Amino acid sequence: MKSSVLILGTPGREGQPSIMLRFDSQNYLFNCPEGTQRVSVENRTRMVKTHNIFFTRVNWDCIGGLPGLLLTVADAGLSRLKLQGGRNLTHSIAAMRQFLYRQNIDVETLEFPLDALEYQDENIRVTPMILTRQVSSDPVLIDANSKRESLPKRRRSSSPDQDESDSLSIFEKLEYNRKVISGLFPGTSGRKSSVPTVNTTLAVKKRKIEADRPAEATAHNVPEGSLGYGDVPPVIDEVEVQAIKAAARGERRRVKGLPTTTPSEEVLCYIVRGPKDRGKFLPKLAQELGIPRGPLYGKLQRDIPITLDDGRTIQPEQVKSKPRNPRTFAVVDCPDSSYVDSLICNPMWQKFSREASEASEATKMDHGDMKLVIHLLGDQMMGNEAYAKWMESFDDSVQHILLSRDHSSRLPLYAAHTTAQLKLSLLNDRIFRVPDFASADVALSSTMNEKAPPHSVTGINQLVYQLEPTSELDHSVANEFPHPSDVERFIKPNFDGLQDYIRVAVEARQKQNLSTAHVEALLNFLRTNRSENNTWISELIKPYARKTKGGEVDLCQHRADDPYGLEVVTLGTGSAIPSKYRNVSATLLDTSSGSVLLDCGEGTWGQMVRFYGPKHIGQALRQLKCIFISHLHADHHLGTVKVLSRWAETVNTGHISVVAPLRFLTWLKEYAQVQDFGLARVNFVANENMVQGISKDSDSYKLLCTDLQLADITTTPVDHCPKAYGVAFQKASANTKDWKVVYSGDTRPCQALVDIGKDATLLIHEATFDDTKMQEAREKRHSTANEAIDVGKQMNAKAILLNHFSQRYPKLPVLSEHVSNVAISFDLMSVRIRDIQDFSKFYDALRLLYAEPEESEELE
């Protein structure tokens, strides 16, 4: 039986990677942070074979990628998924009921130690170990031989209201939340929830849309409370629906929620034992003992003793090779030094120490041979003397993989997009900024070399450790991204065949009065395979140089050069699921008085780090004033918690506004009981309360306008799903030209959006499909590229920026006519209004660059 451990991702400012244990029959995942799905797509990792996910912590750094992955694997046909972790895991999943729902998959949660003391199936036995911050010689242990009776006894459950939840036992809360989850994911078993506040009979119905439906149809045609295609039904009863509507009108009404909980600082480590090897059946030995071929061989192979005709009893071990101890590995999560005592004092580790080599064969067979320890380490943990000494307690043969931001590779995680960005930078390295390769380093630091035991390596993306049949590291598929200065390994493979594109790129740079020397040198090198010197290479890969002001990098320099004082950074330009080239929706509108995130899909924080770099991301967070969420489809908001969390850690005082459908606040409040991500400092403004024609006199709205120095913010329902909104931001300023920026979110062409966007300076509009997919655009309530352009014309918009492209179609949409004020979004692109108006100068080059059909990126 083959088995291996795969590292998915690279530790860094984005968080820790996932760890996948692979067998022929199924895979097991340990942690699922944001970006897990995109890394899987990039590296063609099969996620639909994953039936179990284990979490070391119940916080967004470990579970942030779960909602998006769950929706994707359910749509791909996965029928069951078991989620296992510590306290609050079930509450976290139930809190996602506002946007997470699939009928065809059965999702089950298991919380250690309340539900079980370990997990076991035909492949593995997983023993969790709970770490606490308490420095104690009596850590919390989980022993498979201990008795469950020591836990609190269950009380008979009832369906609680929010007011009653504090009086409920932990088991009653757990049971209630599980009933909510069973309504969200009934699976093929057709489970039904008996919780009164959960409407589990509500079915998702696709509305039939006539092919000749007028393009100007708007969300006002959608009956209140009906479900659009792909919409997630609210898992609430009619009473709660009415309460939410009343709250949106400003009435004081209680909205029901989940039973309350409190954050848990517990961390779980896992010891994973592989299958037992009871020895291989050896026919030669059976023949020597005179055993006839046939059914008796089968019994011996199944470990059943047999009796021969001559009266001899043959035991299975007489005809088998010597049994080999199971292969075992451990996943150790130690966020900071306050958990070290709880970890190293656990006697469970004694079974795998150097001294354990003298243990009995039966003991070794039960616990297995420790082959691998994967360390998920917080900052500066390798400098902890106690932790380093504990690592030395393992036998020298044990392999250690260290996943720490302090000792991680700075090489790009998403190689396909990094390469594409470098190619685009030939057109304009300010609009398409070159990633920062200068800090790329895969070597271990001197501190780590001194502290780490033998056989220690830094974990990198796609690093494999083979458990069976031979235990060893495997670098054959590791994502060791070649440095772009490497002519043979990077420049030739990635630029050869692009001579026509590079030639047109030179012409485009000349039209912009930009230097062309390094691009011409690249073109000459590809033609002749010779170069007088390689100085052009350093110029080719040099990151865009930001100007400084008062000793600090001036992030405002580009919008300061724009008469409107605006800069738009397209952080995520794809739809539905992330792909190699496009992350899901997120657009940063940077103004002279602060920045606004227009939608915040999964991975937005990582995109911000990649764009601004680790040195300047703090300044970008201090500039961030507002996050606008257009609707509650998962690809538009799953990055919000992480961005808010990083903002709260970086910005010590003040507040940040979140503008979203009212139901989003319910989700934020319920998840804030699990993790403090700064909700207390959030100024929440409901989209429902800023619709045109409604009196906008709330304190939260006024505070938002004051923060951004805006004259008005207006939302409107758009034609996509219930509670989907477009928005218009309007500014009157003495220092810059007056401007209006309109953002569509997801929508069909919508007259209501045209109405609030009249004479817009900039329209940012979705363009999910090209015109060949018009029927699909109608059915799925999206727009084509040319429909979006037509909306801009109806508005009389000065500039139009297209985004939210389908991941299944080419990276460059087909436009029916030559337009001079339309730009096509690419991830990590930075444009001003005049850049968009002049974007047509890039079209010839872009058509050459993306002339080849794009390979399929379906999640396997």
Automatic annotation (TrEMBL):
Cited CDD domains: RNaseZ_ELAC1_ELAC2-C-term-like_MBL-fold
Domain of life from the UniProt record: Eukaryota
EC number(s) given by UniProt: 3.1.26.11
Listed name of the protein: Zinc phosphodiesterase ELAC protein 2
Primary location recorded for the protein, binned into one broad class: mitochondrion
Recorded family membership: Belongs to the RNase Z family.
UniProt-listed GO biological process terms: mitochondrial tRNA 3'-end processing
Transmembrane region(s): none
Subcellular location: Mitochondrion matrix; Nucleus
Catalysed reaction equations from the record: Endonucleolytic cleavage of RNA, removing extra 3' nucleotides from tRNA precursor, generating 3' termini of tRNAs. A 3'-hydroxy group is left at the tRNA terminus and a 5'-phosphoryl group is left at the trailer molecule
